[in-house]
Amino acid sequence: MATALQKPTTRRSTRQRNADAGTAAANDESDQDVHSTSGQESEIDELIDSDENNSDDEDESFRLDNTPTRQKSSKGRASSFKVPETPMSAEQDLDDTDDIDTLYGQILGSRLPTEKLVEEWIDKYKGPEKMEAVEDLVNLIIRSCGTKEKIDAKAIEDDELIVDALQNLEDKVSANRYTEYPIASKLRKYKSLKADLIDFWQKLIEECQYDIIYDGLLVETLQVWLTTMSSSTFRPFRHTATVIALNVISSLALIAERAVQEKAIANRQLGAERRKNNNNRASERQKMLEDKSKALANKEKRLNGYLKHFIDSIFVHRCRDVEAVIRMECIKHLGDWMEQYTSYFLDNQYLRYLGWLLNDKSTSRFKVRLVEMALHETDQTTRVQAIGLCVLLAESNVIDASDNMNLGSLIFSDQPKIRSSIAPLANMIFENDYLSPVMSEAKSVAATLPPTTTSTGRTRGVAQGREIDSIAIKFKCLVKMLMDYGEATQKVKKPNILMGSSEVESVDNQMELDASNNIAQVDQAPIGPQFENICSHKESRIALAVGSLFKEISTLQEWKAMVDFLLKDYTTSTSDLSNTAEDSLNEYYQLTDEEDQVFIEIAVAVISLFIDQSVQKSKTKKKNTHDEDTKNQISRHIALALPRLISKYAADGKKITHILVLPQLINLSAYTDLRMSKAYEQLLEDTKKMFMRHTTSTVHLNAALVIKRLTSYESMLSVAEPVLIELRDELSLLLHNTFSDKDMQAQMLSEEALATIAITLSRIQQFIKVMDVTEILEDQNSEAVTNLSLILQVLERGKSGNIQESETILSSAAILFQFLAWKCHQVLTDNDIGGSRVDLSRLIVVRDSVIHTLTDLCLSDSALQVQENVRKMSFQLLVDLYWLFSNEQFRHQKSSDDISLMLRCTPNLQKTATEYVDSELNKWEETYAIEAGQDEDDEQDELSDNGRQHESAHVKIQYERLTPVAALAKACMLGIFDVNHAVTIVSRYRNLGIEVDEVIKALVSSVKDGLNIASTSKLPSSILTMYMDSLKESFERHTKLQDAKLDKTLQLARLLAGSIKAADSDPFHKTSPDLLTDDLHIPGITYCTSRASSYSKNGDQDSRAASLKFFKILTTFSSLLTRARDVAKIHRHLDSVLEQYELSPETSDKDWDAYKAYISSIDTVLQKKGLRYDASNKNNMDSAQQPLGSVDQNRANEFERLQPNALDQSEEDDEPLQRGRKNSKKPANDQNTRGTKRKAEIANKQTAKQIRLSDMLEKS
């Protein structure tokens, strides 16, 4: 940086002298302009002031406004601030809403056309405020980098302070972990900012081309700041400054090209004139042309000097930047310059930069970086491109084997585009590294073996050896590759940018490293087996990988061969050869137990893909006979193979779980087509045995799903019904035998008894999920006790807090909930058919018992000793039950004693539930920061088996923590709880990680739909009150911290404001403007001022200053205001509370900056209507003392009579005002006049309004 500042520093005195010289001349011009307009302004102000002071009816605080007056007053306020002593003492935390009137705010908000904005800046630069204009320009560059700071005048005037000022900015922003900046942001509000910013700079240079760029101040100031910022290690500074500098160069190049062309024309004319004079004395025209030629030559020389300085200090370094986006910007503009200013840039000096991009002596220079980008890049588009490039490099054998393995492991990524892009590489590795070597080796072994002989004595095989089973080898190699990828996935480390690798150093030594880059993140795919949902074959990691490889690897198209391969057994010899010879070849076919399990998953995934493809095609196009035949063919083949598959894998719970997926995929019509009713019945029997024999819940669930599907096929009901009845009887007997010899009231149960109960309840839990078996639970034992009562007793044992009984407690709770859900379904079905199968009195008793027990487990005083997982799940089920019985159709379903089946949650219970969730969130917050730090440390090490177990446990803990939060959010979303209880969740936005944030976003997105319902409802007011309470709680939580920052509260405010805007997108239903004022702005102002007053009286000035920053939060909602009366109401309330709490905003006090920004933002509504607020009006001060409820709703009509012209110019008037003049239209311009009659009507109305105004003035 220091070297970049040496040259500008030597010209510092010249720049300052040029600035001072231009100020005096500009002062005279500005004085004349101000004097010419002051007469008009004074007349208007005098008229309006007399109207407002003398009228007894009008106390509204508005007056006519025009742009010159407003700008003049704003300049006056700005000039009253003191210049700070140090370069950075004037830094202020800014937000987009804080700098509305700055250049950045104008460009971001598109409030003025670019031409108008440039014109205003030039007027300011040519006036007495030249250095202030330059300061605005520099702060535009700083603000465009995304910082929330600004540079003061001292740093602008003294180049020696630039480096320190920028370094301070970098330190502050880097400490906030800042990663995104406007020109690279994908946020909607920044969508057009880059284009608007470029347009501004291009138009600015273009408008300044005749004089300002040669004054020795503007261009040299830009050179100093842009050069310094473009050499920063902080990417936002470097990227933004480079973009601006490149576009400034483009504009200067266009001006220089025009100067060259004009000089060429002048020289031609001068030559012609000299020949015309024939060595006689030069004419006046010749002298004029000579002067013009010299002036243009000097102009060209100065412009070329500017270009050379920008090129040497910025372009030369940035075209080799470590960031591709910056390099791309440089080369793109270089091509533009060659077209724009050919005589200067189409030269070897600049052409060489294009050549340097096309070759490199070190062919592997960027290989390491490309592999890292493919493995760890966070931007998906960039990562996909990097993977595609790595695939091409791998085809040329540039990528190492270890890197190939790491890249291939991306086939298990959780992102579909990543899996698809890496599939070609996986296919290449499969063919070259797995299949070809093994196939060659197997052929060599087979060649040494004699051919096999058939029973007739004939030789089968090749002349010199044995035929090999090539498809079996392919299957084994495919399994081996996926298993290797699974292991490699666990070993991929994050790149260490600071590591001492020579290859990395060779890259970093040749390119500038961005110090702000975060270490790339490992792909967050669910890679461990603990994450697999093996009951859902479509979501397992193997299924996802197969789906991506399906079109790349032809072996995956062999579905029939896969089924046949599963039926084969290579463990025994089938020929007369010795076992040793046979085993030597079988080693290439036979799968290990683990490989066999993986292959079953592959086969199921492939069959699922074939069937899904035929189903999708039949849905999107006309029925395809070929696709239907394929599905029928698959179904018939599997129907024939299923008995043998079940027999082979029946004893292995993990494998049979996947085998039981096959009956859920095939067409059951295959059994009727093949007349296999016996096989159908046998399949049911086998599935029932699997259900009753195995002890794992995954087998129970898949078996239950198969039984449900088989018993639902109408053509086979006669075969299925006896088996289903038999199964229900067995389950009822199983329940009876499980509890017959056990005392559920006992304090302790033996481990054997708990294991038996757990397995039995698991079977019932999985079965009742998919089928209505409530009659089993209603069966009674010999002691006239129902099975339901016994399960309820198991649930009540959860109060003891015995950790060994947790699983049984959770299973019993799930069974009871499913029982009540099926009963509710029966009630609704009875209503449709006009019958009644359900005893409502008994159902209500069971419902109340279950709800009472769940309430005791999660919300009572004794719940503290309940196991955490049991307590959280009990709370979730409690919320689900209240939702279940809140159905309006149950309102008239009553028991014999006139008790309704419909149930509402009491306010006390809602309050207790909210307090419970709040306490859980408080505990989560206490451990969140510690765990985040631990995770950061753990990520630096390779994941071991213990590490993966720890990660799995962490995910489980996170899920359990989120359970009560999601339950409370759901209760508020569904109307089970009052919406005000959502405050405890919403106020923690951005505090507890992305999972909680997603819950909050879903909650806000759901409740926002209640904002624009009928005005008679209290729900919109409740929602807005909840919004404000959440903001208050978030604000207090963050201002109490030692490092108090409002970033998270501001993000919450933007989320809530965005939800209101989304709700108002419906043109027929809008949020009430009165509610926005009364439930958001008014309470927020009261809260802010009362809090500030309290701290001020206690002498705590720091806390007072922090309290006043709440106005920054309110500014976020200013854009929602549309009516002038609402702004007036807010102003009156502000005046009232400021007087009540004895607070006085001071212009020079920075603590009130947020307040001033808020006032400016709400006054924007008035500016759009051509109005402004006058706080000095006495009537205003009197009306401020009135209660808010007594605000005169007819003020708008009086306002119309007093100021007809202003109202006619407004684009959006108040609703009462619109009703008061239904037939009135805006005065038409000359361009859109619709006839003489229309003009006459408008003139008559304007005359009538002026007459009313005159009458009122005479009366006053």
UniProtKB/TrEMBL annotation:
Residues 272-299 form a coiled coil. Residues 42-60 have a biased composition (Acidic residues). One of its GO terms (cellular component) is cohesin complex. Pfam families: HEAT_SCC3-SA, SCD, STAG. Residues 1-96, 1202-1260 are annotated as: Disordered. GO terms for molecular function: chromatin binding. Keywords: Coiled coil. One of its GO terms (biological process) is sister chromatid cohesion. Residues 315-410 form the SCD domain. This is SCD domain-containing protein.
